[in-house]
Amino acid sequence: MIDKAREIALKVLYKIDKDEAYSNIILNEMINKNSDMLSKKDIGLISEIVYGVTTWRFTIDEIIKKHSKIRIKKISPWILNILREAIYQIIFLDKIPKSAAVNEGVNLAKKYGNKGSIGFTNAILRNIDEKDYKDLFNEKDELNRISKTMSMPKWIIEELKEDGLDNNKILDICKNSNIRPNISIRVNNLKTNKNELKDILNKEGIDVKEGILSDFLVLEKARGIENLKSFKEGLFTVQDEVAGLTALVLNPKEGENILDACSSPGGKTTYLAEIMKNKGYIEAWDIHEHRVELVKQNSKRLGIAIINEKVEDASIYNENYKNKFDKILLDVPCLGIGVLKRKPDIKWQKKKEEIDTISKTQFNILDTCSKYLKDEGELVYSTCSIFKSENRNLIEKFLNSNSEFELETLNFNEKFFLNYLSEGKYLEVYQNEKTDGFFICKLAKKGKK
User: Fold this and answer.
1) CA 237/CA 273 separation, integer angstroms
2) How far is residue 154's CA from residue 204's CA, in Å, rounded to a whole number?
3) Same fold? 4-134, 183-238
4) Where are the domains of the chain?
5) pLDDT, position 87
6) Torsion from C-alpha of 34, 40, 42, 46, nearest 10 degrees
7) Residue 413 has what pLDDT?
8) How far apart are alpha carbons 202 and 253 in whole angstroms?
9) For 241-445, CATH number?
10) What is the per-residue pLDDT for 449?
11) Gap between the Cα atoms of 105 and 271, Å rounded
12) What architecture is the 183-238 domain classified under in CATH?
């Protein structure tokens, strides 16, 4: 009899490959669809397998290549993902016996393969052991070794190398891209305070600890957060702390006129409103109607009334907005290499060729929206990427052609982030045990003399 949890995990992995879909979306859909027949333990195993295989896919495929006479591209997608699923359990999950992983893999092959693939699956899985992973560390070329042992595409490693990072730093980034992310939440001070929220969450069965930033808490072993009463009542927002730091760096004031030009799903936008104590005006743009709707939903849940959500393309100049805003937040579209531990699919979906295209889009948005800033106004530029071509290099290019702007020194008291502050003006956070990778800088527009 086939184990239901492993079969659902297989279906999710197959769909991720077939449709190039994001694992979190497909995973949630599949769990919700089968929720009546799944226990908490089942859901935990499904999530573990899906995120684990997605994270370690390249490493697992290297192990398959070692044992298979058939090329990876020639293996049936169903059988390939059965192998990946079973090998992940054998190599990376200590609590699951090898015999269970092998037997369940063969059972799945009987349903999703043919007679030949059943024997093929059985033969490979019975030959797998932990030594297969350890052998990858014998790779002589250091960058190849990092790629194979840390399951990181070579082009990402090469890009970081070109940015001037040494091999130890690159290895550290890759390691931290594979760990499970913290679940950090931002207290909605419009409705509650940190101590009250701690008590409420404890009563809901959630353990909490202090975050890095004063408005943040970190949740321990929390699942189904969106189903909590406290979440539905808008007492908090799920947000990585370094992403929240963008709003603190912009430092909006009550009564100011603010633009968040790339706002969806609204985490940073709503934090701006909370900092402003729901007094002032914020325009929140996105290019797609359904994403604008996400900002509206978040604003409503949090009890925020000062956000005006609009479908607007931030890369196309609109004379009506010239010199209109006191402050602007540009958290621009990016490759997302800083959030790999949260979205491991990005490693396999993004390509090196996209760097040039995305950096041109980023520059266009910055150049366009900078014209919407009042004299003596301030603009924060941020990305959840860690490539210099999307960040520092782009800002330097902008400043070279826009003499009315200058970089501001970043002032904040959070000692943890000070370790990532370069020249006092570039916050270049690489993936670490507590936060995602991120880039933040602040530009000021000079007043007319």
Assistant:
1) 13
2) 44
3) no
4) 4-134, 139-177, 183-238, 241-445
5) 98
6) 80
7) 78
8) 33
9) 3.40.50.150
10) 52
11) 46
12) 2-Layer Sandwich (3.30)
Q: What is the pLDDT of residue 34?
A: 84
Q: Is the peptide bond before 77 cis (omega within 30 degrees of 0)?
A: no
Cα gap 408→422, rounded to integer Å: 12
| Polymer length in residues for the chain | 449
What residues have CB less than 8 Å from 164, skipping those under 6 apart?
388
Please give the positions annotated as active site.
384
Closest CA to 106 of 67, 79, 74: 79
Q: Hey, what's the torsion of the CAs at 284, 288, 290, 291, to 10 degrees? A: -40
Nearest CA to 12 among 39, 55, 49, 37? 49
4-134: CATH topology is N-utilizing Substance Protein B Homolog; Chain A (1.10.940)
pLDDT beneath 50, residues of the chain = none
Residue type, 352: K
CA–CA distance, 149 with 226 (Å, rounded to integer): 35
Q: Is residue 281 within a helix (H) or strand (E), and if so which, with residue range? A: strand 281-286
Span 295-330, pLDDT tens digits: 999 999 999 999 999 999 999 999 999 999 999 999
